Amino acid sequence: MASVQRQHIEHIFQLGEGLDAPQLPAQATIRRSWLRCLNEYQLDPTQPRPARVVPQQTLIEHRESVDELLHVARAGVEQLYGQIAQLGYVLLLTDHRGITVEFRGNPNQDQQLRKAGLYLGADWDERFAGTCAVGTCLHDRQAIICHRQEHFDATHISLTCTAAPIADPQGNVMAVLDISALQSPTQHESQNFSLSLVTLYARMIEDAYFLQRYRDCLMVRLDTSREFVHVNGRGLIAIEENGQVIAANAVGRELISTHQQRWPPWSAQHAPMLSELFECEIADVLSINSATNDQLRAFRARASNAIYFISLLEPRRPRIAPLGKPASSLPTALERLGADDPAIRKVQKLAERLRNEASVNVLISGETGTGKEVVARALHDSGNRANGPFIAVNCAAIPEALIESELFGYEPGAFTGGRAKGMRGLIPQAHGGTLFLDEIGDMPLALQTRLLRVLAEREVMPLGANKPEKVDIRVITATHRHIDTMIAQGEFREDLYYRLNGAQLRLPPLRERADKLYVIRQVFSDVVSERGGSSAPRLRADAISALLAYAWPGNIRQLKNALAFALATAESDEVTVYDLPEQCLSQRITRTPAITATESEATDRHLVTRLQQHHWNISAVARELGVSRPTVYRQMQRQGIVPPNKA
């Protein structure tokens, strides 16, 4: 090992032992990362690791997960690489796990770059690669230079790397933009311009993604300089037509944060009105394009008193399809499955090709509550069996002792306790249509053998019958379990699995979907329709923001239950954040100390006073206290507080 590498390893151990020396990195960020590598990740600096490049199939999966970002980012990637290529730099764009999903470099250095890990598919997660620009940027969520000996791994000390995070509209890091070189000057300051350049392009990509994501919403673009608003306005805020904020880019979020610091009662789930951020009326903003010559207006920010020049970006109009050509090639049932999400688009396209292929059995996989039955029904409704029956069977919900008779049916007198006239099974009932077997992983092994025979011979033998009954069915199955593991453990027949898995549709969890806003509005519309009634309830922007921020461990099923709860408890036709179940709110709301079970009698009187001041309007009290309406109701019940009109 070269002496310079041995010295580098010695410096790492010196820091780990609490020693200090002039040769150690000056940046506190790098020092903290070195200590993480030693103590938390247990990386051995004396054992350098070769670059890890993920297999092609794994790379494809990582790229598909950021498909929308890649589509937006490519123009910025090309521009940036055009500026740095002649200086010997390469460009990497990684996902939030540190896997390189986009790469630009000199083909003449291909072998050297691959060996150094500066290549497509390379893994730069700090837990594996040690201190590096990408991995440490992901950990600290900030732009960073990792120059030569600042790297942890001794094989990286000739590299210089500069990275900046790319955040989604909620402020979560979804990617990292990095420029690196195999060789560079020794001075750390030589990379300062690289840091500025990478940070600039990361913000440009971030804003382009924001504009794409909220292209169907009203938006305001803002800047403190009038001359730059139209061409390079730094702030972007998406709003509802009433002025309620939906989302904002980094500059917009900083402006909102400044406002919240001055008015502490606000929470992350309380999306402000634009008129609360600026001294303006929403009508002033909506009339910008028609009432001003340069389509700009100046407004003062309430929190800082700074003047901002604002332009209005109106939603793009739907493109009119040519006469005789449908706007979408997808059948309606499949189109309703989702909007602009890469994983859902993949499901829609594959489902469109499979909808009339009755000979191909389809397995739908995904977490519980992701809408597997909805996809199965969409396949049925969009295909040539739409006029036939759709029979759905939840294999986990039927007792094991009854599932055989439920599926296959039985003849009169087949067993004690059965119906006198016998019963036609669910499989025969699906004749001419679709049989959907949900939670197929919970089907008993003995029954799996009988189902395999049905699929192979296309006939059913009811219990107690003398001859089989022919069936013409299309079989769609679904599971949230890992069937491969079950096969290895002897819990599921391998031959049945391959018979069922003619094609597989994988549904993403709701928390990962890029079209979460579409799903929320679609499910809300469905719940409203199921409730009936003449009124048309509205989902307010603060409720939408809370729903977008929640992780949804129960996926779409949990979302539907939450919206049904909100509609049932809302006091008006407007559903607000305070009508949602408490688990959908942030900790900042649910942990508020305004009302707790240990409050004193004085606090009890305080609640009564608040209720009287707001004329017993529970929603108004909840908003003032920063809690949900159900919390106020519970505390009223605990304290024995009864509204005057119910006394």
From TrEMBL:
Alphabetical keyword list: ATP-binding, DNA-binding, Nucleotide-binding, Transcription, Transcription regulation
Domain of life: Bacteria
Domain Sigma-54 factor interaction: 337-568
GO biological process, one term: regulation of DNA-templated transcription
Pfam families xref list: AAA_lid_14, HTH_8, Sigma54_activat
InterPro entries listed in its UniProt record: AAA+_ATPase, AAA_lid_NorR, GAF-like_dom_sf, Homeodomain-like_sf, HTH_Fis, P-loop_NTPase, Sigma_54_int, Sigma_54_int_dom_ATP-bd_1
PROSITE patterns in the cross-refs: SIGMA54_INTERACT_1 (PS00675), SIGMA54_INTERACT_2 (PS00676), SIGMA54_INTERACT_3 (PS00688), SIGMA54_INTERACT_4 (PS50045)
An annotated Gene Ontology molecular function: ATP binding
PANTHER family associated with the record: TRANSCRIPTIONAL REGULATORY PROTEIN
Protein's recorded name: Sigma-54-dependent Fis family transcriptional regulator
Taxonomic source organism: Vreelandella aquamarina
Gene behind this protein: acoR
